[in-house]
Amino acid sequence: MVQSKEWDWKNAEQDKWMKPSEDSIYLAKRWKEEGARSVLDLGCGLGRHAIYFTQNGFKVTAVDLSGDAVEITKKNMKEQKVDFLCKTADMMKLPFANDAFDRVFSYHVISHQDTKGVRQVIDEITRVLKPGGKVFLTLCSKEHYAYGDERFPRIDENTVLKTEGAEVEVPHFFADKEILSVLFHDYTFDTVRHITDCVMDGADVQAEIKERSHYFIEATVHKEAIRFDYSEIIGKTVECTVDRPLGSYHPRHKDLYYPINYGYVNGVFAGDGAEQDVYILGVNEALSTFTGKVIAVYHRHNDEEDKWIVAPSDCDLSDEEVLRQIEFQEQFFDGVLVR
Predict the structure, then answer these.
(1) Which pLDDT score, from 0 to 100, does residue 169 have?
(2) Could you give all domains of the chain from N- to C-terminal order, each with its CATH number?
(3) Is the pLDDT of residue 30 over 60?
(4) What is the band of 233 on the pLDDT scale with cuts at 50, 70, 90?
């Protein structure tokens, strides 16, 4: 399996990659009619699709391997006056919980791996999709001119390594109908389109025509839901350190104000490798330490970690009140309160 390689988005033709594809425009309308809410834009590039889905009412999470792409996307978000979670991530190991998204959209992205890598990416997509969720993605076809181009060295029977242009040293995986049936064994195909674009070198009508062929696939996953069991956590008494007390601001995001105490559980580590974060409710003064009871867990779908809700042992808060108090930060994420 090859290591994922990012695009050089900083030097790409940015105007070319800012117009949403026709597929995204069609899918935004249909997915909305189907009741889908959350979308992962896997390999977001400069954010054209993430921005479009957000403008059409979806809760969007966008990731790209390129740090430059993520920074440019955040700049484009501000210009378009939209807001969604955008972070750097490798499609080989997505930093999200199981059953996180209603839809995954990945446009000309996952072909940039070898055969083992593409299988792993689809396994990751399967993991983060909710039961009955859908993925729309594209794959290079073996009818693409590059698959038979002898200038490009082969990594495996389905993959070549580009040696020219913007994608130099970027692997390209090519599929056929037999490979698709293996890759999508956990899915039902909704649509599979095979499209060939004829590209001429220059304006000369006698110039060589290069045929670029791709599969455009929408498929529905079949899987069992993951049950969240926090029975060993909820009701537990924990000792907390408060590093962002009530009335303070986020150390990096200076506009994020903390109307409640926020900290971590001493000696307990979360999915991101750091100590377990906690919201401390039911105390209306700034704290440095606190000992209380875990009354709930906020399970983030589009993140690696959950947030524990801690309060005094005699504090009784409704779900609505808990969600209201943590909304200042959780508005940027998609999740569910578990009690």
Answers:
(1) 84
(2) 9-221 (3.40.50.150), 237-338 (3.90.80.10)
(3) yes
(4) very high
* Separation of first and last alpha carbons in the chain: 41
Residue 102's closest CA among 126, 63, 132? 132
Q: Which amino acid is at 83?
A: D
Residue 179: CB atoms within 10 Å: 19
Structure tokens at 23: 């597929």
Please give the Cα distance from 204 to 211 (Å, whole number): 16
Give the per-residue pLDDT at 252.
87
Q: Please give the pLDDT value at position 205.
A: 56
Q: How far apart are CA 17 and CA 48, in angstroms?
A: 7
- Which position has the token pair 């998609």? 334
Predicted TM-score (pTM) of this structure: 0.83
Phi, psi of 273 (to 5 degrees): 90, -10
Distance between CA atoms of residues 276 and 240, nearest Å:
9
CB-based contacts of 229: which residues, under 8 Å, 6+ apart?
none
How far apart are alpha carbons 138 and 239 in whole angstroms?
Answer: 49
Please, are residues 96 and 40 in contact by the beta-carbon 8 Å criterion? yes
Q: What is the mean pLDDT of residues 261-290?
A: 93
Kindly write down the DSSP assignment for every residue of 154-175, as one continuous string: EEETTEEE--SGGGTT-EEEEE
Question: Which 8-state DSSP code applies to residue 257?
Answer: B
